[in-house]
């Protein structure tokens, strides 16, 4: 029966939209006729997939893979539907409640768009206003409360530091941050020789935390910067493999000195390409 007819099944309608997706989710979780794997899942087991799908969305954007982005956004949307379905089954809330909550929040936090407040503000001022409203919603909570534990560690470090900075707990310039990095690096080297594995890991964490602070002061997204560094490493190492393959060899047949020379060759090649392209 076609969509729109009385008693139509949205699951079979390719243009069924959001009602179709919600119906699919209900069918997958149906205790009698659903999928055994989907029925067995709970919030804890699904949460890692939610994080994975969010990262895959970010990856598609980074690679400008617009054709893939549509599918990745769908995968992420399905995660929201999944959690909402489980919440409804447990009597917590339903998908419509999720939609209402985010809609109400967006209207409330954008009085310059949906209310009488002036739009004559910079993006920075609007960000400050957003944070002020969030703080008011938290009420008497502690300064660092509400920074999600499941965030990537570098991202969470930056968010924690931003919260602390808003109440004055921050270095005034990058000079102090750089000095702290040198201090933490020296402590790590010392720890390597005399401390336990756990203590070494703690010192390494301290160094990463201060590096995240430097990123914040420089207005650099540390996650994006590290992703770019990973991509650069992958790209340059692939060139090393290509050049070795031309000689019928693999990295295992080479040594550090040769591969380091090829790395510098790859680096020079990229620099020349950027110059040629006016970058």
UniProtKB/TrEMBL annotation:
Hydrolase as a keyword of this entry, yes or no, is yes
- Give, as one word, the top-level EC class: hydrolase
Any Pfam family hit: MazG
Q: Which UniProt keywords apply?
A: Hydrolase
The family database entries (InterPro entries) matched by this protein are listed as: MazG-like_dom (IPR004518), NTP-PPase_MazG-like_C (IPR048011), NTP-PPase_MazG-like_N (IPR048015), NTP_PyrPHydrolase_MazG (IPR011551)
- UniProt domain NTP pyrophosphohydrolase MazG-like: residue ranges: 41-114, 176-236
Entry's Gene Ontology molecular function annotations? nucleoside triphosphate diphosphatase activity
Enzyme Commission number(s): 3.6.1.9
Protein name (Swiss-Prot/TrEMBL): Nucleoside triphosphate pyrophosphohydrolase
């Amino acid at each position: 029966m076609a969509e729109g007819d009385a008693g139509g099944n949205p699951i079979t309608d390719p243009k069924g939209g959001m009602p179709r997706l919600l119906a699919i989710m209900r069918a997958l979780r149906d205790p009698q006729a659903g999928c055994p794997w989907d029925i067995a899942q709970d919030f804890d087991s699904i949460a890692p997939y939610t994080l994975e799908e969010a990262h895959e969305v970010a990856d598609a954007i980074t690679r400008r893979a617009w054709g893939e982005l549509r599918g990745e956004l769908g995968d992420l949307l399905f995660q929201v539907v999944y959690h909402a379905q489980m919440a409804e089954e447990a009597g917590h809330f339903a998908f419509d409640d999720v939609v209402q909550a985010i809609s109400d929040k967006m209207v409330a936090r954008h009085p310059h768009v949906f209310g009488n407040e002036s739009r004559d503000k910079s993006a920075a001022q609007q960000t400050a206003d957003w944070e002020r409203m969030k703080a008011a919603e938290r009420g008497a909570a502690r300064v660092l409360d509400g920074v999600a534990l499941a965030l990537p560690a570098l991202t969470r470090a930056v968010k924690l530091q931003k919260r602390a900075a808003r109440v004055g707990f921050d270095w005034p310039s990058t000079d102090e941050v750089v000095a702290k990095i040198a201090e933490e690096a020296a402590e790590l080297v010392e720890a390597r020789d005399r401390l336990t594995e756990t203590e070494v890991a703690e010192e390494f964490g301290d160094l990463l935390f201060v590096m995240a602070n430097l990123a914040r002061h420089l207005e650099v997204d540390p996650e994006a910067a590290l992703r770019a560094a990973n991509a650069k490493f992958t790209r340059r190492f692939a060139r090393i493999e290509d050049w070795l393959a031309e000689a019928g060899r693999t990295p295992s047949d080479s040594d550090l000195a040769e591969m380091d020379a090829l790395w510098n060759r790859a680096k020079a090649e990229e620099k020349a390409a950027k110059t040629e392209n006016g970058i």
